[in-house]
């Protein structure tokens, strides 16, 4: 029985390190804090810490070039969005990353005000 | 005296003596014969007894063999199913990554890994295979993979990273061995205690040290464990007991098969067991940047606003991985930049981006006087472009492995 006749895995192997190990079994972060569009970038003065996990290191490198959204980070790393949220949340708390809430979409103006303006304009110029 | 001659008793005696003598001699002969027969019978009996023991042994071996074969085939199916399921779960995790269901998918993934580990362990006991990974993996990732295969994995803390990687054929065996050690460590220590893993380079290779804060083992248990770990006696399915305790047996078999050593005879600083896995150099390799794939190995933050000129050419850019033409950038062009390392001694990964694929303007700025330099530089840019393009297609297939 030699080692060389060890067959390759029959099926395409999934990643060696599973996502629940990367998050160390933590609960998901509430998505109100980090939405898909929350933008993050590396902090100006990152703290000196122990070597980070490869995945966190990867996130930092991705964000080194400027602001990147959570969705984009998930796309680049191939990790589930929820897992990326946990990583980003950790990194933000540790001071490695700086998060900026997404620019809110324009608020809908009250219909009544619009009607009043319209009425006023019509009364004046109509 | 004459009166005796008339005594019939005398004549009877005279006649009787030879008869008696003959009878005695016959008797002696008979006894001798019987003795011989007895010896023969004894021998025969001994022979029979020997053969019987042999026959029983043979029957036992044959039974063990067929049990192993059956189990091995059954486990192969289970192993296949588990890895298929793992892939399916991975896809689901990606699809539903932003929803609450992800939490459940992560839990299911965890259970599936434990299930796969059991199947693998039984397969090993039956002389089956684990399946070889296609790529080498960093030691840190292998340790984390092992951590993910036990129930109470959050109690395991990995204290050190390392630059070492494990060759593809040894990835699964080492992960399984570590998982069995961690399973023991978590089972024989209090639920709130931590299991600590340290990675330490030694002259003969690398040691993975697992310390628990459990009750430890007495001398007898240590001796038994040592015997199992040496892998000397072949694993037997029938002697595992119920509930089966096959951790050390599995470790022993794998260590013997792949040529590494595992010992549990020392005491951890926390009073529990210290298990040490010593991986020899043959099973180790180092992670090259090229293996990591360009997706993570593009550039240090690029200096896009560098003034044009020699500094730009000497700056560590993405091109140090793509050997350009020798006259590129003029005589000032520095030697290829050495990959930087992080504070922890890990190779620093570099970011890929559009900037690293298209050379910056000043890089390709030729010395105006030299036409040949301009041509060479353009060619260099073209070459770098195609190379980084090729690298990025590789990345999509390899990128997952390095995470």
Automatic annotation (TrEMBL), chain A:
InterPro entries: DUF742. This is DUF742 domain-containing protein. It comes from Streptomyces albospinus.
Automatic annotation (TrEMBL), chain B:
Residues 174-281 form the Histidine kinase/HSP90-like ATPase domain. It holds the Pfam family HATPase_c. Its EC number is 2.7.13.3. GO terms for molecular function: kinase activity. Residues 384-397 have a biased composition (Polar residues). Keywords: Coiled coil, Kinase, Phosphoprotein, Transferase. Residues 289-403 are annotated as: Disordered. Residues 31-65 form a coiled coil. The keyword Kinase applies. InterPro entries: HATPase_C_sf (IPR036890), HATPase_dom (IPR003594), TCS_sensor_his_kinase (IPR050428). It is an enzyme of class 2 (transferase). It comes from the Bacteria. This is histidine kinase. It comes from Streptomyces albospinus.
